[in-house]
Design a protein that fits this description.
One of its GO terms (molecular function) is flavin adenine dinucleotide binding. This protein is α/β, with parallel strands linked by helices and 489 residues long. It folds into 3 domains: 219 residues, FAD/NAD(P)-binding domain (3-Layer(bba) Sandwich); 112 residues, FAD/NAD(P)-binding domain, CATH 3.50.50.60; 106 residues, Enolase-like, domain 1 (2-Layer Sandwich), CATH 3.30.390. About 2% of the residues have low confidence.
């Protein structure tokens, strides 16, 4: 019944001129379409995938949610989500299997897709399954993947939310089995769990996969990175702590070494990666985690914008503060406009675009770049808000540091989950300049720091505030006390 109603709505959308069409059905596209429809606008989403909630769909898009589910499944099945008491020898034992991990990814993907479809249905958004291509400033040609015929759609405004993908070097012989791009790692897991994966490129995605795979039994990843300045968006001290934790789990790092050649030994299935240092790394799969490119190749944007200048050399769309492209009626949001990989910004961007289409006042975002929380979803997680220590040093801004270890907290002792927090504060005003945290729920606790930094809170506030006991949030008080002890009296 729901499918029939959705099909009828899609046919109606095709037959009429719409107020707005969203190209791409990820969270950013869905949010924009729902908002426009709730405001009384005729809106449609063009979704390239005909399959809904399938494992194949979840693993083929390179989207963030399947990876996060993979990470959480590994944490749960490996027992790292258990307390110290539950993980005692007499406690419950869980078997880690490829099937169990994939089942969890599929179930979450199905839930995510079905709930999104239900929300769009409730809002009155039409969903058209097909691949969109501009044939004019206000016209799309859609290769329908259900009715298997091209259809034409027109609208006053468009929002592009097609995301990005890993750039495949044409000189690398990708074969899908021994040599793969990073965003196909989950597809690889449908066949086998690698024991000696070689991650080439210590990008955020590469580090996330390396640390998660290392949490599986008998998996020993190697990370190869030619640039010695790894993860420059993170504080140097926190990066060192993260890499030390990863080394303890069996991850080997080859920093400053460049991969010169990749060779597959057909008789054994081994992958040999020759490095610029003269060393050869041997593994069972080479995973390239390198630069990203916007998913714009098939959109024919020049037909809509009248010029190729609206896209940069990497395929990312150029936009202004209101998310408008060089064609004012076409907007772009999410990873198709950025190489940062901060996917959670896309929700805010999509609402800004939708409000601008409606002519509503668009509130100035209260967060500048320093106040956007940055998280690496490695195991353990690392998060920060505010400038790094190296940035403050370059700017010659005075600061003192305050530290807190989870072992100093009651909750840390109870759960036996190591972690760490670092505060940087102004020694004169005691204002909190930045917060850096590593360990359990780092991506959750960082939002306390985000509010404190945004509202120019002080270390004194963190000391006198009432914190739940026991909680990881108590680390703010411990770190603030440590920082204040180093300030001039």
């Amino acid at each position: 019944m729901a499918t029939a109603r959705a099909s009828a709505r899609a046919k109606k959308a095709i037959a009429t001129h719409l107020d707005a069409i969203v190209i791409g059905s990820g969270p950013a596209g869905q949010r924009a379409a729902e908002y426009l429809a709730q405001k009384g606008k005729k809106a449609a989403v063009v979704n390239p995938m005909a399959e809904v909630g399938s494992l194949k769909l979840a693993l083929s898009t390179g989207a963030a949610l399947p990876f996060f589910t993979f990470r959480e499944a590994v944490l749960y099945l490996s027992g790292q989500r258990q307390t110290a008491f539950e993980s005692e020898p007499d406690g419950p034992q869980r078997r880690i299997s490829r099937e169990a991990i994939l089942h969890r990814i599929e179930s979450v993907a199905k839930w995510s897709t079905e709930s999104a479809m239900a929300r769009m249905h409730a809002a009155g958004v039409a969903v058209v399954h097909g691949v969109a291509r501009f044939v004019g400033p206000h016209m799309l040609r859609v290769s329908d993947t259900i009715m298997h015929r091209p259809i034409t759609m027109t609208a006053d405004a468009f929002i592009i939310a097609t995301g990005s993908h890993t750039v495949n070097d044409p000189n690398i012989p990708f074969d899908g089995r021994h040599i793969i791009p990073c965003d196909r790692m989950l597809q690889y897991l449908t066949h086998r769990i690698p024991r000696r994966p070689i991650i080439i490129g210590a990008t955020v995605q590469g580090v996330e996969y390396a640390s998660t795979l290392a949490s599986l039994p008998n998996v020993q990843p190697t990370v190869v990175e030619s640039n010695p300045d790894v993860l420059p968006q993170m504080d140097d001290g926190m990066r060192r702590r993260l890499f030390e934790r990863m080394r303890q789990k069996g991850v080997a790092f080859k920093i400053g070494a460049r991969a010169l050649d990749v060779d597959v030994v057909q008789s054994t299935g081994e992958v040999h990666v020759a490095l610029s240092t003269g060393e050869t790394v041997v593994g069972d799969v080479a995973v390239f985690a390198q630069s990203k490119s916007g998913n714009t190749d098939n959109l024919n944007l020049e037909a809509a914008m009248g010029s190729p200048d609206g896209i940069d050399s990497r395929g990312f769309i150029k936009v202004n503060r209101d998310m408008q492209t060089m064609a004012p009626h076409i907007y772009a949001v999410g990873n198709v406009i950025s190489q940062t990989g901060v996917s959670y910004l896309s929700g805010y961007q999509s609402l800004e675009a939708a409000r601008h289409i409606l002519g509503e006042p668009v509130p100035q975002r209260s967060l500048d770049d320093e106040l956007i929380p940055i998280t690496i979803n490695s195991i353990p997680q690392v998060s920060r808000v505010g400038p790094t220590q190296q940035a403050l040093t370059r700017q010659q801004r005075p600061f003192v540091t305050g530290y807190a270890h989870h072992t100093e907290l009651a909750i840390g002792q109870m759960l036996q989950r190591p972690g760490f927090m670092k505060l940087l504060i102004d020694p004169d005003t005691k204002r909190v300049l930045s917060v850096h945290t590593l360990g359990s729920a780092a991506n959750e606790s960082i939002h306390i720091g985000q509010a404190v930094v945004a509202f120019q809170g002080t270390a004194d506030y963190l000391v006198t505030n009432i914190w739940n006991y026991p909680s990881f949030a108590e680390a703010y008080r411990v770190a603030a006390l440590d920082a204040l002890s180093k300030c001039p009296t």
